[in-house]
């Protein structure tokens, strides 16, 4: 097959008939990395009364890819050092459970072990 020939998949979703169109992911979405306050063990970054959760790799494995609650909370000061999401987002882990996708449904601070 030469480069100018259209590529049609053998398996199709109902209603789709057009050929495949190869695209770069960066053309379809804005991809950024999370951020973490340092040193992460410092208690000033966390506050049990905060409305913003702190997403950890353990949350990904415990909740099987759909985050609906987070036990750890990030402080107002910590929120200045991370990326806070207030709406659902697709995240990919880049540490420990590399490549595992997760959809976040709660207000969350996202550390640097994730792509958003």
Compact description:
It is built from two helices and seven strands, in the order βαβαβββββ.
Provide the fold topology.
Blueprint: E1 53-55, H1 57-63, E2 66-67, H2 76-79, E3 83-85, E4 89-93, E5 101-104, E6 108-110, E7 114-115
Parallel strand pairs: 1-6, 2-5
Antiparallel strand pairs: 3-6, 4-5, 4-7
What number of domains?
Answer: 1
Share of helix among residues? Answer: under 10%
Radius of gyration, in angstroms, nearest whole number? 19 Å
Beta fraction: 15-25%
What is the CATH third-level topology name?
Answer: Adenine-n6-DNA-methyltransferase TaqI, Chain A, domain 2
Shape: elongated
pLDDT averaged residue by residue: 89
Q: Give start-end ranges of low-pLDDT stretches.
A: none
Taken in chain order, the helices and strands follow as EHEHEEEEE
Distance between the termini: 36 Å
Largest beta sheet: strand ordering: 2-5-4-7
CATH homology superfamily name: DNA methylase specificity domains
Number of strands: 7
CATH class: Alpha Beta
User: If classified by CATH, what would the architecture be?
Assistant: Alpha-Beta Complex
- Biggest β-sheet strands, sense, barrel: 4 strands, mixed
Alpha-beta classification: mainly beta
How large is the count of helical segments?
2
